[in-house]
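FAQ
Q: What does a multi-component entry look like?
A: The components come first, one per line:
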Amino acid sequence: MKKMAVKIEVPPCEKCDILSTSVFCSLSRSEISSLSNSKSFNLYKKGQVIFYEGNQPQGLYCLNSGKVKIHKLGDDGKEQIVRLAKKGSVIGYRALLSGDNYYATATALEDTLVCFFSKSIYLNLLMTKPQFSMRTIQMLASDLKTAEQMITNMAQKHVRERMAAALLMLTEFFGLEEDASTINTVLTREDIGNIAGTTTETSIRVLSDLNLSKIIKLNGKKIKILNHKELQRIANVSD
Amino acid sequence: MTNRTSSSEINCNCAECWLKDFSVFKNCTDEVLDEVSIHKKSSEFSKGELLINENEEFKGVFCIRQGVVKIFTGRKKNKEFILWFARPGDLIGLDSFINNENYSFYAVAIDDVKTCFIPATDFKTIITKGPAISIGLMKDLCDKINFIEDRISSISQKKIREQFAEVLLSLSMKNKTVADGDVDVDFSIKELADIIGTTKNYLNKILSEFSEQKVVALNNKKLVIKDLNKLSLIAIGEGSVS
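Then the predicted structure of the entire assembly, as tokens:
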């Protein structure tokens, strides 16, 4: 029997369970519902690109479910992940703010539902709602902090420390599964290497080394944290 | 240690400042700028003087009027890392203010510096005064993120040779230059290899190339940088060794 594609209903913003923590939290109910009426909604399959580095931004993407990686491509084709996004994250807003083209590419790490708001709606909110623009400024400041921590790690930490830090970052960002020890994501070894700023080969080598020392347990693509304290010690997180 | 300047300087008017258009206050109304002018304090720092200590409680933002300020982290762990250089028109401390936390970096004057200081509470009132200032702040933060993310991407794209040069440079920043212009590196080859994620043998191979070109030298197993300029060129992929 042929499998039928199911048409997905657009979830209204006012009923969204992540509204209170999203960038739109300061808007009134009526503003939210008019926002909701003007948005569009899409499903991106795992591996599908949401926007490409160098393209012109048309609007703002807000993740309704799923996970996305934001990555830059180097001249020699090496990818570097600069940020991750999950349910409730907005992506692509920086290019809208500065009027430049996208600085990076966004790719779905798993099947991801995304709400889309047009550029004019977004810029209008920014100009007319001070609380909304303050929230945007906060998001920027927090992104800046993440980026600064990342570059400091990359310039100064050993590859093993960076890999441990990448695993801790993933744990904190995506959370754990029901068993309270498996990281709630399926990233490839290459992806993890691209977060830590190392090659796929080194990524595989360090992960299997951590697996041997029983600090983590590799189970296919899933990674289980066995010894969180030891991982923290390796990552050299003192603060 | 901060020397307050004469009263005439304290009252310098932001609306008339030639740096205004290069700062977050671009497009702000005169009313907003007057508010800034009233509340700010002028101060001067001599070369090497500390403006901000890492983890110090946030007390306000500095706007640079003259000179260059080095913004860096990690001095305590003896692993200094330069985030950026603040130049005239730049604002220091904006991110700490927005994240509502202590300063997360050091700021040191690298030449004679003049600043306007806006205290925390006053800055809080100022940024609520209309969209122009918000847009200015957003633009400033966007530029900084772009700058850092470009560096993240380039650091991971570099060939081992370029990465090695980059790491040597970043380590050399914290060390005092000895009389003849050489810089000591207090890290072993093994440690440097670990930082980059390569092997000691491979790094030794690059090192012998570097010493042939007189970029570095090994004195009693101690690594010394002989030619910072050449090293900088290699770090950006423009210095040919062979």
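Q: Is there any commentary attached?
A: Sometimes. For this entry: The mean pLDDT of chain A is 89.
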